[in-house]
Amino acid sequence: MSVAIDAMGGDRAPDALVRGAINAARDHGVEIILVGIEDMLRETLKRQGGSNLPISIYPASQIVDMEESPADSLRHKKDSSIRVAFELVRQGKAKAVVSAGNSGATLATAMVALGRINGVRPAIATLMPTPKKPVAMIDVGANVDCKPIHLLQFGIMGSVFAGELLNNPRPRVGLLSIGEEDTKGNQLVKKAYDLLADSKLNFVGNVEGGEVFKGDVDVVVCDGFVGNICLKLSEGLAKAILTMLKSEIGEGLMADMGLRLKSAFKRFYKIIDYAEYGGAPLLGINGIAIICHGLSASKAVKNAIQLADELAKIELADKLEDSLAKRQDLFKVAQ
Asked: Residues 111, 153: one domain?
């Protein structure tokens, strides 16, 4: 089946979404459905040379603005590109959704159209670069107010996600806190610590912010408020480091640098570039959804489509449901 793309979502829609879809179809053979204003998408697809690829167009007459409230989008825009894309998954006509549009509306629509797994709190997971291998951080923005049981659920889902995507049979799970000792943290973290310790996950205890990028854990659990700040701080820091390096070295010296040093800079940029990871999967829904950065260019969109296709092929949603079902007794104790 195809991956449905919310082709009208994001600051660079529809051009970047269509270009990313063309590259994913051409390079990886992914079948794609572009959802949005039909005439606009057909013209864009033709202009960018993608008419002969396995890309179809499904009409949607409305667009959800980036600033629009999720409730308003659900109430007043039943034929939005986000809503129609998720309906295609619900109807079995697509296997996943990719959107660079309004993340709040994407989250709300996913829960309405597809529902939640076993009543869990869905969360957004993202891959953070480290010198060793990527680490999955969950949640990075779906839930700003959490209970200890939600952090337990995030740990379970993050463990399954990292295990499948990073080919790690027993991922190390850490809880983001202000100190490594189990007595450190606020009440939410302290209570979540006890739940995770009893969960039979490979829980390694608290992880301080400065330890995240060492790569000594595979999953970092936190609430969405803290996680979103960590994510955006990391993105901003990476950009600032590159800007400062260029400023200190100077354009002339950059041009004269040896091939090895230039290659090192390129590898460094590739490691920290969010476009390399494409987007962040929304875990805990009955299906696959990838939420992309609103400013995503075609490279990020292409990689997000590839990620969506891969997660659908390995049946990640079913594996999450199975793992969560096995721990229902823990959830009852935690409530």
From this structure: no
